[in-house]
């Protein structure tokens, strides 16, 4: 159990670290590409910070829900789910109304963690690539 917990914590740290590296790369590119990169950078930082907090909150929610009875776990996770969406809506609203925060940067920051998780799982799964590269003839000859 403790080994699984460490593995999950290591995965969380890895995802957050990769998100930080991606944010730094995007920040550097935006600084080189844009005339006024500061609103975009503030949006990116704002969105990424909230995304990381939502990710940690999701991990905490799931860890607690596993130890609850099914009915209680379902209502607990549903409440937390809507709370995370309300937080995201508030972040987007603040980004739209604040002139010093770029909405595009905020949205990129908010969805960045989803792309990091997708890329992490996609590039770590060797069977996925074997299935893509498997020829149709191999499937029909194997029958």
From TrEMBL:
Q: What is its main location?
A: membrane
Q: Which UniProt keywords apply?
A: Cell membrane, Membrane, Transmembrane, Transmembrane helix
TM regions (residue ranges): 15-34, 40-60, 81-101, 107-124
Q: Does the keyword Membrane apply?
A: yes
The membrane topology noted for this protein in its Swiss-Prot or TrEMBL record is:
Multi-pass membrane protein
Q: Does the keyword Nucleotide-binding apply?
A: no
Q: Which Pfam families match?
A: ATP-synt_I
What compartments host this protein? Answer: Cell membrane
Q: Which domain of life is it from?
A: Bacteria
Please state what the protein is called. ATP synthase subunit I
Origin organism is Fusibacter ferrireducens
């Amino acid at each position: 159990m403790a080994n699984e917990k460490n593995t999950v914590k290591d995965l969380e740290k890895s995802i957050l670290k990769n998100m930080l590296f991606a944010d730094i790369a995007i920040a550097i590119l935006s600084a080189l590409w844009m005339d006024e990169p500061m609103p975009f950078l503030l949006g990116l930082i704002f969105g990424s910070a909230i995304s990381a907090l939502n990710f940690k909150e999701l991990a905490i929610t799931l860890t607690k829900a596993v130890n609850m009875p099914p009915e209680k776990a379902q209502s607990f996770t549903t409440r937390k789910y809507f709370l995370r969406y309300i937080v995201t809506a508030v972040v987007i609203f603040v980004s739209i109304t604040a002139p010093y925060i770029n909405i595009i940067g905020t949205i990129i920051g908010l969805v960045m963690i989803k792309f990091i998780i997708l890329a992490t799982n996609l590039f770590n799964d060797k069977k996925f690539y074997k299935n893509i590269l498997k020829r149709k003839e191999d499937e029909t000859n194997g029958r």
